[in-house]
Amino acid sequence: MGVTLIAERLFDGERILSEIAVTVGDSGIISSVGGGVSSSAERLPGLLVPGFIDIQVNGGGGVLFNQDPTVSALQKISEAHRQFGTSAFLPTLITDSLPVMQRAADAVSEAISSDVPGVTGIHFEGPHLSEAKKGTHEQGFIRHLSDDELSLYAREDLGIRLVTLAPECVAVSDIRKLVSLGVHVCLGHSNACADTVEAALDAGATGFTHLYNAMSPLHSREPGMVGTALIRDDAWCGLIADGHHVSPGAMALALKAKPRGKLLLVTDAMSLVGSDEISFPLFDRVVTREGDKLTSSTGELAGSHLDMIGAVRNICDWCGVELQEALRMASLYPAQFIGLGSGIITEGARADMVLLDEGLQVSRTWSQGREVFRRH
Q1: Dist CA 49 CA 323 (whole Å)
Q2: Would you please indicate which residues are annotated as catalytic (active-site) residues?
Q3: In whole angstroms, what is the distance from residue 105 CA to residue 69 CA?
């Protein structure tokens, strides 16, 4: 049967249209855009845009995935982020023990099979990282890739699988193996030289996790990971546009250097997003929020308090990015990176959509055709 909505304005991923109908089938796929509509169709005031896709979500709603790797936790994280326009996300587990990784994988598998809104896979950020660039990750859990982790990453019941690793810590042959298993390999938390980074990209790695942060910097005689990320036109880069992880000037440089379509907005959000709490434990430390900045008791940044619509507004306000391009950075480009059939409102795409008001606040969110958030 499906449902038809009439958008006052619609950004379909390419252009803005006025007074346009969108029909969603029972399968959660868009069956048509445009065409005749009945007078009973619901009218949507504001701007209807593709749903946001966040490939790096550590937590939300007072829950950190590492501390509670369960389906109920994923439901709370989903509820926290969909109020900010996130219609699909990769729950992200930072460096931890193998049993915790396995429980997280089981939770994601169950969440996908039981249709928890937005859960489309899993992002393992570590544990195969550089201790020199570990950031807030727990050093005691950092380790080399073993057959146990390979077996975990090979699980096809996990949906979209993404692994962040340091290329100096994982053999090129193992990167090829991961890619052959259908894993998206991102490079990050690394002190690698440019040649090592290039070799990993040539072996099939396709992206960089939180550009600039926890990676070897650009120098005049050694491009490092940052320089290589900016140089390689074929690689995607995640960008935490919160003003703490990356300055507006560094964001502007990345926008100039990277081809259009290769910069993605991510949040790296922690448990405090969507909650009133101001601190939480992280392993043997405490993370505290001051304003929208999260700092560990040992001094380093510890994830972010950013949400996706906030990232869209920031990249527009600070870097002069046009709204349509900022929306693509939050939807179409991450969809293309991970191979998700969304990020655009067109026939045959997933019905992941967000309704924005004139102040670029989220009014409603749909995930695979289901309305999962409505602001009252």
Answers
A1: 11
A2: 268
A3: 8
